[in-house]
Write a structure and sequence with these properties.
about 425 residues
Length: about 425
Amino acid sequence: VLINSGSRHEAKYLSGISHFLEKLAFSSTAQFGSKDEILLTLEKHGGICDCQASRDTIMYAVSADAKGLDTVVNLLADVALQPRLSDEEIEMTRTAIRFELEDLNMRPDPEPLLTEMIHAAAYRDNTVGLNRFCPLENTDKIDREVLHSYLRNYYTPDRMVLAGVGIEHEQLVECAKKHLLGAEPVWGSGQTKDVDRSVAQYTGGIVKVEKDMSDVSLGPTPIPELTHIMIGLESSSFLEEDFIPFAVLNMMMGGGGSFSAGGPGKGMFTRLYLNVLNRHHWMYNATSYHHSYEDTGLLCIHASADPKQVREMVEIITREFILMAGAVGEVELERAKTQLKSMLMMNLESRPVIFEDVGRQVLATNTRKLPHELCALISQVKSSDIKRVVTKMLHKKPAVAALGDLTDLPTYEHIQAALSSKDGRLPRMYRLFR
């Protein structure tokens, strides 16, 4: 079951509700007395369950033997619409979230933190810029009443999709009619009144966190102290035609850590490998990411290096952004398109991915584009399309996230100036000598 509900919908609520719901999933319900009962029921059909909340979707998923279809749909309906949310479970969730927040700040891999920061910088205080993790001060404020109020507004039939893979469509429809049609949720079916329908407003901006990263790594081979920078620009939503050229561009930029050996889909021929990691041995990481939602998107590059080289690192990244708008070689374009297609096909070998793909597409567009249709669209991308989408993207204000020792970080205005210049260079700083 996929539900159009996530941290982006929490504008009128306490931040962190989706994080709570994700942790509370598959706990006791009207029919099942505890999490153990649910797991035992699933075990009879060789099943496993999982819940994942993202910025725009929450997904309750079960993989089990097809013979257990009726049991599974009944269980999913119960978990989504009839959770007990006992005081004890909510208290345990608070503890789990506090532990997770603590762990998040201690991890050597700053990826989750940086992703939060770049979204907060790009969409200041709105929709996808809202925090996906529950802030520490809200853990005690979120209780059953708050959760019910939120669920009443967002867990409504028009915002839900039941998706299945490996079963006949008719069977799934029958089960949906039996267990979900007309099901009365535990919070009642009153009128929804606080549904946030706001569209993402891209603001650009900078979010900095000064943090001592010198003791992050444990173990005999310590990771050197690094400063992490992420620079992003608004791209396009996955409903727009430009989404495909952006996906190809992201593949073309590629990149990774300086230690990764390439592997399928990594691409030693991507620009961030060839132009950045191969030339600047002191850079530990340069990776391109593309986040896309139904009303906006964000293309960003994450880079990390020694704190003393932050300024140089920022300039290398801004230059790469400017070079995106330049000439695109026929060979590199074809390679990126082939890589994107092969990645798409390889991912769709696994059933959980197909399930998520079907569910998310139907939730957003009411239809599903089949893999061969997507491959045809990828094949049609020309170098002029890349140039067009990049030129449009470079007119926007940048979003910047910076984590670590930021003594040498250029100012936001300088980064913005570099991205609007012809060569991507930072304005020179003149030191006055007496």
